[in-house]
Amino acid sequence: MRNLYIDFDGVIMDTITTINRIMKELHIDERNPEEVLQFYETLNWKNILAITPEINDGIACIQKILDADIFDIAILTHVNSLDEVIEKVFFLRKYFGNITIIPVPKKISKTKMVHAEDAILVDDYSGNLREWEEAGGIGVRFNLRLNGKGFRVIDRLDQLLELDFTPNLTFKKNMIQ
Known about the structure:
Elements: E1 2-6, H1 15-25, H2 33-41, H3 45-51, H4 58-68, E2 71-79, H5 82-93, E3 100-105, E4 120-123, H6 126-134, E5 138-142, E6 152-154
């Protein structure tokens, strides 16, 4: 089975929008890296996850992919604090008892935590996907406007079941954007 890594923030849960809204409410200067880092390190992730909406039925889509039994699935998520790791694990364990969860410190590339070669990464951030493909992996951009930025693109995780990941990089349903 091919390894499939799914990002959490901006793919499963809309934490980015939630956090950006809170930063704006608290007048956090996004251009001040120290202020932003301190903000992220002190976030109450249990509360963040409680108020954050799921994206396009992501949990059910992951279950559908698990049920198809064609990928070895793991959640590969950048994190800024130990609290973030803990709360993401608790959150995901409510839905998936056996899924692998790999927290990646924000300052480390996802390609340094797992073997990317021939593996699929679904991520909303094209920088991660570029690094992934440079390491021999297959990048799939998750974007609600279906803006692939040069990558295969989906806006629902269960669309992965429709893609053809053979070496010629064609799509079953002609989903090239």
